[in-house]
Amino acid sequence: MTGIHAPRHWHIDRAQATAAAGGRTAERRTGGRAAQALEQARSRLMVTVAVFALAFGAVGVKLVDATVMSQGGDTGLAQAASAHAIPASRADIVDRNGVLLASSLATASLHADPKLVINPLEATQKLTSVLTDLDYQDTLAKLKSDKRFVWIRRNLSPREHYEVNRLGIPGLYFQREERRVYPNANLTAHVVGFTGVDNNGLMGVEQSFDSRLRSSSEPVQLSLDVRLQHLVKRELQSAVDEFQALGGAGMIMDVKTGEVLAMVSLPDFDPHAPTNDENARFNRNTLGVYEMGSTFKIFNSALALESGKIRMGDSFDATKSVRVGRFTISDYHGKNRWLTVPEVFMYSSNIGSVRMALEVGTPAQRALMDKLGLLRRSPVEIPEVGAPMVPSPWREASTMTIAFGHGLSVSPIQMASATAATVNGGLLHPPTLLKRDPGDPVPAERVISPQTSDQIRRLMRLVVTQGTATGAAAPGYVVGGKTGTAEKTSGRGYAKKALLSSFIGAFPIQDPRYLVMAMVDEPKGNKRTYGYATGGWVAAPLAGRIIQQMGPLMGIAPIDENRPDIRTATEIHLNPRGSTLASY
User: Fold this and answer.
1) Could you say which of 294, 349, 353, 409 is catalytic?
2) pLDDT one-digit tens code per residue, 254-280
3) Residue partners of 535: CB distance under 8 A and separation at least 6
4) Has 583 been annotated as catalytic?
5) Residue-averaged pLDDT of the chain
């Protein structure tokens, strides 16, 4: 039987189909491998991109941390620097009108981790080329040390921060801190004070109100008026320069509130870079205590008149000197005759003042000095306050010398506060460097009667119109005051050529509002003053210039000093002969 065979062309077609199918299979197999390889490449690329992104992200974070956040270093370093964490903001200090006296600015401080400094020598050379005040050897020693944290420089300026950052030195880091700035620099240095590198108050208001400045965002408002501060400093500096003096002190006080509107001590210093010069940092207004000389006759006259034992028309023998122990009390250009109470004051008679004090007695003198705050430290709100030097025991000899301003040493701020009380109607207001709230009652203690205060004002007016303080006259402002010229103590005696020349006065004297005190330490007479360096030649004209300029600043219009009501309020009527001794 013949087998059945497929046609030849069928085999050929099948073979071709099989071959074609195999080709398609091979093609699919090859395409799959290519796709798989492509997918693997894509995945690897994504992983690589992710790795690079993470790496660059980490580097970016590190750069931001080192240059912006300024918290460089490892965890241990951060812990080591925890004591230097970002400080709390310190409140501002402003004057009575809101003018900024002290404020805090954010700054960068430079520190290093010496372990991470690759080349200390090169790093030191670069740093000292930018921060030229760095000590080379000290900086090199710090960068070579085994410590993990060393300060290189605190409180860089923005420019210094930028320049150091540009150096790109490994192991150096910036930390944010605060720097205290004083826009008026030296002007209020003795009152405002200054802070240390850690922002701790070290002097003045900065020290006494340190806790309050740290804990509150509310500014501390002082009683100072920057305009008056500028005025007092300019005129005081002019007098110190003209008379080649060691220094000077000047104040303005509101006699109705006790607020200190200006307080200047010369020489002064820059609170941004406090000097170690004790003379410059010494506040003559509050820390210095002095025998104030004849300005004390204000209190001696108040003592006499307040006692009731002495009246304005009484006279005292000033014909000859008074002996006290091995000393002789005499008058400078004495009149060598009997003098009335106004004449004792007007001519500044030491002899007449002694006789008045002896008539009233030691207990009464001491009691009044105590009531006036002259036997205890001033309560003014800064740490630099001197204690008065009070005689002990307080004998009759002390009574005699205190009558004309020797034997009891007080600070100018005590002197100003006590004088304000004698002219404002007899009320002692504690002196303050803080602005009082107009709505709050002013603390006050009566120390003399209004009648005695009125008499003291008339006596002080007389000194400016006819006595030793004519140089203090400021036309239109009705000034009254008293000069003082005290020989400074030297060993167990006095240095006759080392004078303390002063003036203290108030205006308008018929109804005082402001007190002005000026003191020049060891002035030297010159050709203009005919060689004199007394309070009348040195301090009185200085105070007069201040008053003449401050009147318009304070909105006080000048008046006709010869108006009948002004003359009535300032003249003195009675002397022993019954005639009128006028103050105009």
Assistant:
1) 294
2) 999 999 999 999 999 999 999 889 999
3) 293, 294, 295, 468, 469, 483, 484, 485, 501, 502, 503
4) no
5) 87
